[in-house]
Amino acid sequence: MKNSFLHIAFLWLLAIAGHAQDQQFTQFYAAPTAVNPAFAGASVQSRVSMQYRNQWAGIPGGFNAGNITFDQFMPNINSGIGMLVSYDQAGSGALRTSSVALQYAYEARIKRNWFFRPALQFGYGQKSINFEKLTFYDQMIREGDEPSLEAGTIRPVNYYDMGAGLLTYSQKFWFGISGFHNNAPDVSMYDSQKTPLARKISVHGGYRARLKGNSLRKLDHYVVFAANYLSQQKFDQLDLGFYYEFSPMILGLWYRGLPMKSNSYGYANHDALAFVLGFQAGNYKVGYSYDVTISRLGIANSSGSHEVSLVYQWANKHNQRAKKIRIMPCAKF
């Protein structure tokens, strides 16, 4: 019981110091428009994706988060459009954040199989606290089920949000950079203070290579190497990983952390090793990942993190021909 209390207190301190950092996902390429709005419509096919993450499942009052995305390519105007709906909750669901964003990306052809995409994102978000799931000291010393006096000091906050991104890719390589919360919206739930939401920067890229078979058999196997660097205020991390794709299965291994950098407590900045398993059947893709905590929090205390994703893609008559001649090289999960 004592250790659990210390862990919860530790998470609370991290949340205060983090100044409302965004939630992270292991299978971020299952919903690539959440990484960079320039991915909107990049696959040519229409796409719907859903993600759910249960972070540090062994800690009471941990984090749960999800994304629902839709994007589609419009060949008549060389553009992609998208919608991103996100939510996360912490502290047994007491602290909640939700948002919806619209995305637009324009596609320019540099060479025959080389493309460049600038993009914009406009969103609206809300942050709130459910006081029915919290118990304060003033409620414990009073009789009855009266609400806490703290409830009157905090209000839900609504805010507008802006983001942008750039992406370039060929049949084997991709590289992009994106920025979110560029207008630094105020997310303070107190009238007496301001808390700007820190800008988040993502730099990401990768390479896809096809494995060759013998002269009589052509392998439909690929190896994909990918990386994603995130920076938000004093927090930064690097995701490095690779996938082995042998249709219809996909296996992946990722490392999260910055091994050459120590955190503010003087400890090596290691976070997790993640194992990814994916399966593709027709227009559907299903993924599962498990994060093994390698920080000082430890796997015994955190029980790791679970994440699932579901993606459905389809091509209409206008995009069917483009689907056959162009392949987006980025990872599938």
Structural description of this entry:
A hairpin with a 2-residue loop joins strand 13 and strand 14. 32% of the residues are buried. This protein has a single domain (2-325), classed as monomeric porin ompg (Porin). The protein is built from four helices and 15 strands. It is mainly β. Strands 1-2-3-4-6-7-8-9-10-11-12-13-14-15 form a 14-stranded antiparallel β-barrel. Mean pLDDT is 81; it is low at 1-19.
Per DSSP, the total helix count is 4
CATH-level-4 superfamily name = monomeric porin ompg
Overall tally of domains: 1
- Gap between N and C termini: 37 Å
What is the topology, as strand order, of the major beta sheet?
Answer: 1-2-3-4-6-7-8-9-10-11-12-13-14-15
Tell me the helix content: 10-25%
Q: Tell me, what's the shape?
A: globular
Quick check: average pLDDT? 81
- Please identify the top-level CATH class: Mainly Beta
- Given as residue ranges, the uncertain stretches (5+ residues, pLDDT < 50) are 1-19
> What would you report as the Rg, rounded to the nearest angstrom?
21 Å
Strand content: over 45%
Judged by helices, strands and strand pairing, the structural class is mainly beta
Count of strand segments: 15
What CATH architecture do you see?
Beta Barrel
CATH topology: Porin
Largest sheet: 14 strands, antiparallel, barrel
Listing every helix as H and every strand as E from the N terminus to the C terminus, the arrangement reads HEEEEEEHEEEEEEEEHEH
